[in-house]
């Protein structure tokens, strides 16, 4: 989590000092027309007027700038921030005003795969994807040196923080995990990023993991562990079903008086049925042609 210096005041965006450039373009055309008329006249007075018109032409034309949709321009006066112009189209401001354009469009970033130790200390590989955009142009331009590089660095820190907060997987399904609770973990990652990027006036619209896996050095061991857990779970289900079938067989034999079995024969029957029902291979029956006893 980022900490803020109480003595440091963050920059805040405010409306800029830009004006409609169409009116100034119309004035520029009038100056051009007057200049053409003066060139044709060629009188001494007109020559002085032409010089003034030329200066006015250069003054006006140097104040134009263009803003595309979802684009802003931070206006500065000798290094002091005067506001941000977000109005699209042809714009104009005083020539001595500095104009620094900044995109307000959504940006997509996919981080590099980084190695993180999860809550249990297992090394895992994580990569994240996020959609972000600038909401405060003053903070993005003047409170951080390079806001795009700042986003890239903070994504890695946030991913490491969230990756170390939870285990990769929980075979008993009792804990929040990176693999099993994607929506919750992604929500916490977004909250972490919003908190870290607020100093740069950046909002995170959505984020999530694009890569999540055990590191190669333990991937094989963890795969065998997952396979063993799956086998144990399957065996538990199989044994529970086999016990139910044996109970049902004994109950029906006793209820319908098909055959009377003592405890020893019941134990042998239960053993044989469990072998048949729980065995991995097909069993071969042996026909008893003699007496049961």
List keywords for this structure.
single chain; 293 residues; alpha+beta; four-stranded antiparallel β-sheet; three-stranded antiparallel β-sheet; 7 helices; 46% helix
Describe this structure in words.
The structure is a single chain. With 293 residues, the protein is of the alpha+beta class. It has seven helices and ten strands.
The amount of beta strand, in percent, is 15-25%
Poorly predicted spans: none
Q: Whole-Å distance between the termini?
A: 79 Å
Oligomer: single chain
* Rg, Cα atoms, Å: 39 Å
Tell me the helix content.
40-55%
User: Globular, elongated, flat, extended or rod-shaped: what is the shape?
Assistant: rod-shaped
For the biggest sheet, the summary is: 4 strands, antiparallel
Q: What is the string of helix and strand elements?
A: EHHEEEEEEEEHHHEHH
Please give the count of helices: 7
What is the arithmetic mean of pLDDT? 78
In terms of structural class, how would the helical and strand content be classed?
A: alpha+beta
How many beta strands in the DSSP annotation?
10
Short summary:
The chain has 293 residues and is α+β, with helices and mostly antiparallel strands. 46% of the residues lie in helices and 22% in strands.
């Amino acid at each position: 989590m980022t900490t803020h210096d109480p003595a440091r005041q963050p920059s805040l965006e405010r409306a800029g000092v830009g004006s409609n450039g169409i009116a100034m373009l119309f004035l520029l055309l009038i100056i051009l027309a007057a200049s053409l008329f003066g060139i044709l006249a060629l009188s001494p007075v007109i020559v002085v007027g032409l010089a003034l018109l030329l200066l006015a032409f250069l003054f006006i034309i140097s104040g134009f700038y263009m803003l595309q949709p979802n684009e802003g321009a931070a206006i500065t006066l000798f290094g002091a921030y005067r506001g941000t112009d977000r109005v699209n189209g042809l714009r104009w401001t005083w020539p001595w005003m500095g104009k620094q354009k900044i995109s307000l469009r959504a940006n997509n970033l996919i981080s590099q795969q980084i190695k993180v130790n999860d809550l249990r200390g297992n090394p895992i590989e994580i990569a994240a994807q996020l959609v972000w955009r600038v909401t405060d142009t003053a903070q993005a331009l003047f409170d951080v040196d390079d806001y795009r590089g700042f986003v890239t660095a903070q994504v890695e820190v946030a991913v490491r923080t969230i990756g170390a907060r939870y285990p990769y997987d929980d075979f008993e399904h009792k804990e929040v995990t990176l693999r099993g609770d994607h929506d919750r973990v992604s929500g916490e990652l977004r909250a972490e990023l919003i908190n870290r990027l607020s100093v740069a006036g950046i909002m995170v619209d959505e984020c999530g993991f694009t890569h999540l896996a055990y590191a190669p050095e333990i991937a094989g061991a963890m795969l065998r562990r997952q396979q063993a857990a799956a086998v144990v779970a399957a065996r538990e289900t199989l044994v529970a079903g086999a016990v139910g079938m044996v109970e049902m067989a004994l109950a029906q034999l006793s209820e319908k008086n098909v055959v009377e079995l003592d405890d020893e024969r019941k134990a042998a029957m239960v053993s044989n049925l469990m072998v048949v029902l729980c065995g991995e291979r097909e069993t071969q029956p042996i026909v008893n042609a003699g007496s049961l006893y």
